[in-house]
Design goal:
Blueprint (H helix, E strand, L loop, with lengths): L1 H36 L1 E10 L8 H4 L1 E6 L4 H9 L2 E3 L2 E5 L2 E2 L9 E4 L2 E2 L14 E6 L7
Length: 140
């Protein structure tokens, strides 16, 4: 009888530890799900030289939300139909850069010329991204 009682206590002890481990795993998993559900809000604006295209940039400008850890390149593909070559944007909304006029798609992040490519930039809360397509621009 003592052996049976001891065995029952051992089973309860092991079962209790197992449940505690599962609760810990569930807590970690729900934390990861919460991180995955977080979003960032940012603004994307455009400045396009009228010599290149006659468009209303205000119609293109957008405030967007994306999951945390989304890159600018991903958003440009999904929201603006961007075309890229080796990570460099060559067209946005069908508006192609023009090599003969030295007009290339470049972007600023919060008023500063970007030091990384769109595929390497992870969007952050409150970012203001400005895409520029202007004649005769040189890389800064």
């Amino acid at each position: 009888m003592k052996k049976i009682l001891g065995l029952c206590m051992l089973i309860f002890l092991v079962a209790g530890c197992g449940n505690q481990e599962n609760a810990s795993t569930e807590s970690e998993t729900s934390g990861n799900t919460q991180d995955q559900n977080e979003e960032v809000t940012y603004t994307i604006e455009f400045s396009i030289d009228d010599e290149l295209y006659s468009v209303d940039e205000d119609e293109m400008n957008q405030e967007l939300n994306s999951p945390k850890d989304t890159t600018l390149l991903e958003v440009m593909h999904e929201e603006f139909g961007a075309v890229d070559s080796d990570g460099f944007i060559t067209a946005i909304n069908g508006l192609e850069q023009k090599d003969d006029k030295k007009a290339y798609w470049l972007f600023d992040i919060n008023g500063e010329f970007s030091q990384v490519g769109a595929g390497d930039y992870v969007l952050e809360e409150g970012d203001e991204i400005t895409w520029k397509l202007e004649t005769g621009q040189d890389e800064e």
